[in-house]
Structures are given as structure tokens and as C-alpha cells.
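In response to reviewer comment 3 from the previous cycle, which asked for concrete evidence that the modeling workflow produces usable outputs, we include below a single protein chain processed end to end. The sequence was submitted unchanged, and the resulting C-alpha cells are shown without manual editing.
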Amino acid sequence: MTENTPNEPLQRPGFVYHLGRAIMFPLAKMVYRVKIEGTKNVPLEGPVIIASNHLSFIDSIVIPVLAPRRVQFLAKSAYFEGTGVKGWFSKMFFTSIGAVGVRRGAGQAAQEALEQGRQILEGGNAFAIYPEGTRSLDGRLYKGRTGVAWLALTTGAKVVPVGLIGTNKMMPVGAKIPRFAKVKIRYGEPIDVSVHGAANSGRARRLATDEIMAAIHALSEQELANEYNESPPHDIIEKAKRALWRRERL
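The workflow returned the following C-alpha cells.
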């Protein structure tokens, strides 16, 4: 699959999404006993950003399937580019639940991903994002990247902070199927970050992001890492990109 450009229509959740919700919602509630708190804090209409901590691969299934409204999110392009039966199923599943494929990276790649999120929000939809950028492998909550604030300040969408608890035990790294574990999804009260200033202000983006991360921390009760969650650069080009964009993490 080729990634969407800002001028292309985005895929909307399809049949598999609705089937998945019909099957997985009661399964999660009765079998896995997922506890959901604060659903009243999620506006049922209009653009809203669902900003969550990120502990496990299954977070991107749990949020759109169990949210009180349809939620779209970004997923790495590898999920759409596989071959054979497994690749076909992966592409069908992620496309059908409303995922938008993007290539990971710093600088321009990160900004292009945010443009996809902006387009989703301007269509009046709910968009899920992980301000940490990637999942936490040690369970700590890492410093938020300012892309979430840019989205909120650019579109005027309110931000609903989310604290996921136990999803890393439900599906730890390397697990093929979900395990039985106590999982909680906590939705906090919507945050209006417009009080911090305009989207073109780096200070406003940083203050807004810190407010969002503080709300996520209160919900998730994780230990704070006080640093960005960075994976090692793949090559010299990626290292150079990070050096150029070191002042602000999108």
C-alpha cells in the first residue's frame, strides 16, 4: 500500500471494523475483563484527539475496538506491505479498522504523518495518537513529542488523555495472542490547549504537550522517564535527520 498524501481521501473503517467491535467488545469485557473508566469524557461527535500512553502492540486494537466512538489511527507501513496470505490479512484488517499507513522516521516523515492526522480531524473524526512516539518497553512514561499539540492547536480539536494499564501484560513483546491480564482504560476530561498560544509557537506546543502528558501520567500512574523514547537510528541518514530535528520531537 502506498501512503496517503494530504490531498488523497483517507480510508474509512469498514465491515471488519464493525464486525470486530461486535465480537471483540463483549469478548474483552467478559473474557479478558477489561475495565473502562470515563467514557463520558469522550465527545461522541466532532473532531477529538485521543492521546494515550503506549505499552503494547495491542493498544492499537484495544483503543479503536473499545472506544465509545469510531477512532482512526496511524500504523506503520509494514502492516500494509506484507506478501502472501498473512500480508493480505494484515492489510485488510488494518485498512478496515481505519488505520492509515505511514513510514516512520524523523523530520519530514514525522510531519507528513501529522498531516494525515490533521486531515482525519478536519473531517470531524476522532484520531488516536501516542505522544511518546513509540511503545515503552520498560513500562515507564516517556516525554511527549509536540506533534500532538501541533494537531490540537492547528485543528482546534480538544484532547482526551487516556491511561492504558496492563496492556503490556496482556500482550508483551513477542506474544502472538493476548494473555489473560487485568487491563484498564481510563479516559480523562477533555483538554483545551488553545490557552497556550498558536500552533506556530514552539513554546505553546511544548507547554500544551506537557499538560497532555501530565494528564496521561495521572491516569496511567506510570513511573516517569523524563526523556524521549528513542529507538537506535537505522543508518547514517536517519542519524543526520535526528540531529537536524533535535530541538523538537514531533
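The helical segments are 15-30, 59-66, 84-96, 108-122, 147-155, 167-170, 202-220, 236-244. We consider this sufficient to address the reviewer's concern, and the full set will be provided in the supplementary archive.
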